[in-house]
UniProtKB/TrEMBL annotation:
The gene is ftsY. Keywords: Cell membrane, Cytoplasm, GTP-binding, Hydrolase, Membrane, Nucleotide-binding, Receptor. InterPro entries: AAA+_ATPase, P-loop_NTPase, Signal_recog_particl_SRP54_hlx, SR_rcpt_FtsY, SRP/SRP_N, SRP54_GTPase_dom, SRP54_N_sf. It is found in: Cell membrane; Cytoplasm. GO terms for cellular component: cytoplasm; plasma membrane. This is Signal recognition particle receptor FtsY. GTP binds at residues 125-132, 207-211, 271-274. Part of the signal recognition particle protein translocation system, which is composed of SRP and FtsY.
Length: 321
């Protein structure tokens, strides 16, 4: 590995550590209180741990899985020192994340399609989760990797959404396709993929309306967008990325539930982890929905939308200063 890559990797890990600092501090403080005066992992410690995981927004179902696994280890090993709990917990959470085979996304690599069509990423999520910002940062990073990117302003119901995406387009030098406010989002999607194909683009990042209205309407709207795009690129979209605000904790679980019922979500981006102690939501959502987390947002900078690496995430989450 080159010196440049080592330095860049170290800087990204430091940013991740800083971004998860609140989650890390909150979790470790609770853990230290749970094991104070204890020499072994017993039922009382496990009850405390269960409460800690749930209040850290790991989610009830995932918490129960983790506790059951630790109980099995305690029963098997007969005596587990309380000082080992941190290590055991790391191992079991890593195990859960590893069961989702695509938990580690291979960098910003975009597959090259056999027919040369652009790779279409349709981005979904409610207003306020950082959807447009995620698109802008991803466009910047992909362009920096030498990819030709086209943005589609498919959220035609909010002037602010189109304006915000236009600003990202201006700042990154990535072209944008847009129409008048109130236009049919499917029409914007059609124009975007048609233009991207004509330009020989590598990637399309298509924004969509961030309204979590009733599930049937949402399903119909997203289905129509897909059908229209497929008139130009038959297998589009190649990725449906759901953006969730990690700082909302359990509300992010509910949003994930609603969107996965309305459309086939194939990847996740979890934002705003730097301003919250709710980093455990990444563990729970990845486990419960079995959808790969591709990106996490750990800061305001252009490079602070990071490719999710489960080993580095777990290390930062449990890091002791």
């Amino acid at each position: 590995m080159s010196w440049f890559k080592r330095v860049l990797g170290k800087e990204k890990k430091e940013t991740l550590d800083k971004g998860l600092e609140k989650s890390n501090r909150s979790f470790l403080d609770k853990m230290s209180r749970a094991v104070v005066g204890k020499t072994k992992v017993d039922d009382e410690v496990l009850d405390e741990l269960e409460e800690i995981l749930i209040t850290s927004d790991v989610g009830v179902e995932t918490t129960i899985k983790i506790i059951n696994r630790i109980e099995e280890r305690v029963a098997r090993d007969k005596y587990v020192n309380s000082s080992e709990l941190d290590k055991i917990l790391r191992e079991e959470i890593m195990g859960l994340l590893s069961e989702n085979e695509s938990s580690n996304f291979e960098g910003l690599s975009i597959p090259t399609l056999p027919n040369g069509d652009p790779y279409v990423i349709m981005v979904v999520g409610v207003n306020g989760v950082g959807k447009t910002t995620t698109i802008g940062k991803l466009a910047y990073q992909l362009k920096s990797k030498g990819k030709k990117v086209v943005l589609g302003a498919g959220d035609t119901f909010r002037a602010a959404a189109v304006d915000q995406l236009q600003i990202w387009s201006d700042n990154t030098g990535v072209p944008i396709i847009k129409q008048a406010m109130g236009s049919d989002p499917a029409s914007v999607a059609y124009d975007t993929v048609q233009s991207a194909k004509a330009q020989g683009a590598d990637v399309v990042l298509l924004d969509t309306a961030g309204r979590l209205h009733n599930k049937i309407n949402l399903m119909n709207e997203l289905s129509k967008i897909k059908r229209v795009m497929q008139k130009v690129i038959p297998d589009a979209p190649h990725d449906v990325m759901l953006v969730l605000d990690g700082s909302t904790g359990q509300n992010a679980f509910e949003q994930a539930k609603q969107f996965t019922q309305a459309t086939e979500v194939t990847s996740l981006a979890i934002t705003k982890l730097d301003g919250t102690a709710k980093g455990g939501v990444v563990i729970g959502i990845s486990d419960q929905f079995q959808i790969p987390v591709k990106y996490i947002g750990v800061g305001e900078g252009m490079d602070d939308l990071q490719v999710f690496n489960k080993a580095e995430f777990v290390d930062s989450f449990f890091k002791k200063n």
